[in-house]
Hints:
Layout: H1 2-31, H2 51-57, H3 64-95, H4 101-111, H5 120-129, H6 136-142, H7 147-157, H8 162-170, H9 175-186, H10 188-204, H11 207-212, H12 221-226, H13 236-266
Helix pairs in contact: 1-13, 2-13, 3-7, 3-10, 8-9, 10-13
Amino acid sequence: MKLFAKILTYVLLTIAALSALIPMWELFTSTLRPSDKVFSEYLRASNPTLQNYKDLWELQNPNYIRSLFNSLFLACTGVMLQLFFCSLAGFALAKYEFKGKKILMAVQLLTVFIPGAVTLGPGYQLMYQLGLVDTYLGMLIGSAGNVFGIFLFRQAMLAVPDELMNAARIDGCTEFGIYWNIVMPIVRPMTGAFCLLTFMGSWNSLLWPSMMLQSPGHHTLPIALSSLVGLYSQKYGMTMAGTFVMVLPVVVLFLVLQKEFISGLTSGAVKG
């Protein structure tokens, strides 16, 4: 009976996994169809073509290749900045006692309830007054930290024993050294989950970059893809190919960080 239940579980999980892959397969096959037949027929062995990818790569307005590298730069740099500042702030909130700590935490938590769209106007005005509109620096400063990341690391770092930190201080380790060499390796699973979530958020962001990045040479991938959809004509073949290329980095990153991602999401769920 147990063997039958185990086999049934694996069969159901396999069916669910294959069902989840159907949209990706349909997207991939759509990129190999002629642009005028994307929705009119299924892919046959006699008609696959790479013309959609060729047209996409030769596209000059928008420049898809430039937009791809812009997105990679902003997403990777943004992840590193948020990882550093959020983990450092989470370390301070988890392991130090200082005046006004509870008030600071309460104010930060209250900002979670403010819709992101509400802050777009004031955020843009601030970047404009600083002269950082249409610059990569303005994009990165605006995403250098977030409350979600701070409290994610705070909760993970609360589990780090204070005795371990005190032993490091006795050995002459600096406070930053304790954070970097002791605490961060311990919360590595949470770091992997945070990096993946942050990368996906930055990679898929459209509204804020479309406001900040006005020059075509600064446009990110979502902006380039959205420009392929016109008022009177839509380049479905290139849109499908561009969407598939846009999904690939996220899939690769998940495959690399899947162990840390799952461990980070389940950490603390089981106590023993």
